[in-house]
Amino acid sequence: MVDLDRYREPSREPAVLEARRLALVDQLGWLADEAAALGPLLADLPAWAVDQAPVPEERTVKETLQALAALDRDVYPGWLDQIEASGASPEAPTFAVPDLSALGEGANERDLHELLADVRAQRQPLAARVAEIAPEVWDRPLTLGDETMDLYGLALDIVRRDADELKTLAYRLHSADISQRTRG
């Protein structure tokens, strides 16, 4: 019989931790690659498909792209600064789950290719910075929302947020009628 409880907590072996760090940094870089791949696909869509949301509480494609770039530029670097500075502090840094809606405001007036370039331009240095963080810093505790985690968990949360946002866009665009025909 296999003891599945042993997988409840990830291994803390140095080689395993190094592999996790490398994998997470690689996954962080995925957003820049995805933005490059999305460019030609989104450029072929009618303007309304990237400038309008299907319902008021959802973000447009442009708002989502701007929000992802803003997180990389304005939110995550400050979090990393606090984590690195928290070394001897008994208080773990606490971060609120970001509100992507506020970060996407004004995006629909921007050029789509500019937004995609911004996503790539912001993510590449963020991934490089995370790659340079010393291994001992990755274990420092922090809180995101109500969840206690470390930098491994935070990096995974960022990757999951990216994937969830892009998956939502993909499903929405896949199910939309984006043909050029006149509706009548």
Name some characteristics of this structure.
184 residues, mainly alpha, Four Helix Bundle (Hemerythrin (Met), subunit A), 6 helices, 3 strands
User: Which architecture per CATH?
Assistant: Up-down Bundle
Shape: elongated
SSE topology string: HHHEHHEEH
Query: What is Rg?
Result: 19 Å
Proportion of strand residues: under 5%
The portion of residues assigned to helices is 55-70%
Query: How does the helix and strand content classify structurally?
Result: mainly alpha
Order of the strands making up the biggest sheet: 1-2-3
Query: How many domains, as an integer?
Result: 1
Number of strands: 3
Mean pLDDT rating: 90
Description of the structure:
The protein has 184 residues and is mainly alpha-helical. The mean pLDDT is 90. It starts with 13 loop residues before the first helix and ends in a 9-residue tail after the last helix. A 3-stranded mixed sheet has the order 1-2-3. It has a single domain, classed as Four Helix Bundle (Hemerythrin (Met), subunit A) (Up-down Bundle). It has 6 helices and 3 strands. The longest helix is centred in the first third of the chain and has 30 residues, at 14-43. 60% of the residues lie in helices and 4% in strands.
